[in-house]
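Supplementary Note 2. Why include the ligand at all?

Several targets in our set were suspected to adopt different conformations when bound, so apo predictions alone were not considered sufficient. For every target with a known small-molecule partner we therefore ran a joint prediction. The input for alpha-D-glucopyranose is given below.
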Amino acid sequence: MTIYHLSTECYPVAKVGGLADVVGALPKYQNKMKDVDAKVVMPWYNKAFVYDHEFEVVFDGFIHQGQNMLQVQVMKEKTNTLGFELFMVKIPGLLDRENPYGYQDESFQFLAFQQGVLHWLTAMKIRPDVLHCHDYHTGLVPFMVEHCPEFAFLRGTKTIGTIHNGEYQGMMHWDMIHFMPAFDHYKWGLLDWNGFINPLASMIKCCSAFTTVSEGYLEELFVSFKGLESLVRDEFGKAYGIINGIDTDVWNPQTDPMLDFNYTSKNVLKIKKKNKHKLCKEYGLNPDLPLFAFIGRFATEKGADLLPEVIWRSIKQTYGALNIIVLGSGNSYIEDKLKELNYVYANFATDIGYKEHLSHKIYASADFLLMPSRVEPCGLNQMYAMRYGTVPVVSYTGGLRDTVKDISTGGSGLNFTYPGVDDIIHAMIRGLAIFNQKQAMDDLVLSNMKFDFAWEKSAEKYLALYKN
Ligand code: ADP
Ligand code: GLC
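The joint prediction is reproduced in token form.
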């Protein structure tokens, strides 16, 4: 069975968040299964990876976007070092950028990617068994496959749409129709949602089946999906919740090259402290106090706007009995607030930016990982934290509620129902109390490390879905 994963991100080529981690790992695990050949197709980016690896041109052609004729090249990475074949679609001016997102003309960028992929497959007469589309950036593929005469060769190909984040739907004005490949106009309703072209809605309508990255998140979409609630209810028959796994080759405290001191569950209690000491020293924090960490995008869905108040109030309320470290970037107001607090409180440190190495060091050093998310379709941070013996302190939502159970119900994490400042601080104070009872804390560290979030089980579920 041949599966083509279509995505704007893939670790380690280009990463903004968890989408990259999933697309960089799932195909690798799928390729370990019998008779599965999974590949990744993504846009070309001007990033270190493309200069450090050798590519060959496997296709050269043209697509039309309105009046513009765009050159499309498909580049294949020659060595398969990632555990799967990697194809990158290059279109000068649109798909040769520094980053996946953040451009004014993103709609053109993503349209060109989807069109470029389908044009290549059609021209080369490649008919995969499954086109697996990730998020709205590839959400028009199921429609195009079925209703654009140009891609008639691909008609009938099964399409899976995975919703990693329903907050982003890629809505476009209907004017954009002039830049799409020609399609059967009687089918326009399959593109529309409330008067806009909505790629995520179109994906749900047109794909063979769609998945969310946890079961809990799928349930939530019925009641809160930025206007698509009724659609997901109507299409429930082809909806599946499949929890993400983690790449245990990359995220392994025993071998992780980004850590100062590697460890296993046998010596974690000693060695984790060494990592913590080093990190605390670098950031001017007291290593004897419990260390709470936050890693992530500064966005309201992550509850990052609550952090400044959580930081100063928790430090005050506990009379400085805890430390907090924050790594992230995003909303500039939050960035500025955090920088300000960095000067005021000795118990708080922040590093603004995207730093893969530092994130690994923090998972390995912190005692607790804070995730006050308002929306969390799956969340990978809590799983990385647990594998590194760090106790997750998380809101009860989406994938977090599927993966973290509170200690009061036999789990090994700390939950709060509502992501508000008071509830978060209450959970932190519960954490502080546990930290102060050495045996209880040690038990918690060890029980977190026992969780098995490896990809195998979920990869099986995807395979069963493809076969179905
Ligand atoms: P999302 O994709 O919504 O941002 P996930 O929990 O699925 O959330 O995945 C986030 C991924 O991005 C994790 O691998 C996390 O370690 C990483 N990450 C987020 N922010 C940063 C940062 N500032 N520096 C390094 N890694 C980060
Ligand atoms: C999205 C979600 C996150 C999920 C990730 C990978 O970015 O916000 O919760 O873990 O995709 O599926």
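The pocket of alpha-D-glucopyranose (ligand 2) is lined by residues 17-19, 22, 164-165, 213, 244, 376-380, 399 (CB under 6 Å). The first strand starts at residue 2 and ends at 6. Comparable summaries for the other entries are listed in the accompanying table.
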